[in-house]
Write the C-alpha cells for this entry.
Amino acid sequence: MVMLIIITFGQVVTAEVETETGLTLKVTRHILDDAASSVALEFAEHDQGRTKVLTGGLDGTVILLDYEQENSKAGVRVLSSEVTHTMNAASWHPSGHSALIVGDQGVLLRYNTETGTLEHVEGANHSVLWADLSSVAWNQRGDIAWIGTKSGDVYRYTNDSLTSVLSDLGSVQDIACLSVFLRSECMFVTQNSGILLSDREGTISSKEWFAISESWNWLTGVCATDRPVCVIAGGDTKYATIVIDSVDVNNSQASEVANIMGSGAPVIDLFLTQEKDVMGVTSDSRIVWFHTSDAEYNDPGTDVYPFIEGSELRELNEIIDSQILTGWMNPTVDGDFHGWMITKNGHIVVIDPSVSGGLVSATGSTIVFLLVIIAVPGTILGLLWMYLPGPRRWAAERRKRKRGKRGERIAAETSRRGKR
C-alpha cells in the first residue's frame, strides 16, 4: 500500500520540511490538482482496506480519493450530491461496497462503489425532520448505522429506515464503533452527557461516562482495531480511554481524565495507524501519538507521545495555510514511517523518513560492509592455519609443552602440601 500512496501522490513537491522525529513532510499536490480551487473539507474517512478516502464539506462537496489509480487525476473523483448543504461526516460499510454520508438539513446520502454514484436514502429527510446531521458510524456487523445530530439526537439506521433513540444530549460530536472480530459495540461522544455506549444488539447504555462541566467539551473519539479500547479527546487538552465490556456495556472500565503534556490546544480529530495505535490532531496542528497497546482488557490506561510539532507544520503554512483534517500512518518493521495527511483546504502532505535518516541508514550499511570485508580474510587465514600441516604441528607441540609445564606445577604444589 505504501507504493500505491507514493505512485498516486508522486507529484512535484511544492514545500518540504524535516521534523525532529526523523520525518520528511512534503506538500505534493492539491486534492483537485489545482491549489487555486476553492474547497473547504469537513471530514475525510478511509475505507477498511485503506485504499480509498471519502471526503467532503461545504456546498455539498463529496470527493472520492482512490489510491489504486496511478494517475493522480484519475484517482480523484468529484461526486455529484445534487445538494448545496454542508456535508459533515461519512462511514464506510464493513463490506466496503457502500458508505453513508451525512450533512446539514437532514441530508443522508449513500455512495455505491459498484455504480460510483451518490444516491439519497429514501425517507431519511422526513425521519430526521431536516436536522443538521453531525456524525455517522456503522457497527462491525454492518446491520446498524448510528447517526447523531448537532442538536443532540441519536438515530438508529436499519433496513433503510431511521428510528429516534435518544435526544437532548447536546451536540453529538462523534460516533465510533469497535472493529474487533465479533464485537459490534459503539461509542457516542456527546456535549452534555459525556460518553454513552451501545451493546451488540443496539441498546444504549443506562450509564454515562465522563460527564463534564461547562468549561470544556469532548470533541472526538476513535476505537482501536485489535482490542475493545476507545480513546476520546476534547477541549483543554483532555483525553481518556475506555475498555468496553463484552457482556454488559454498563460495566465498561474507564481511565482517569488526563492532560496531553506539552500542548495548549485540544485534540480535534483522531485517526488510526497501520499498527492499530491512534494519532491525534490538535487545533494548533500538533500531531500526538496515543499508544493504546498500553491499554489492556482490564486496564484502560494509555500513554501519549509527541509526534509532529505544530511549529514544524507551520513551516508549510505558506503553502497549505490550513488545519490538518485527518491522515494515515504506516510504521514499518525498520522503524520508519510512511503516510499522508489531508488539510481542510485540500492539500495533501506525504510523510516519509527524513533524508538524514536515510543517510544514517546508508552509513550503517557501509560500516557493516567494511566489517565483512575485514572479517572474511581473517576467517580464511584462520581456516588455513587450522588445516595446513606446518601450523598444525606447531600448534600441537605448543599444546604439549603447555600441558607439561602445567603438570610440573601441579606436582610441585602437591609436594609442598605433603611437607606440611
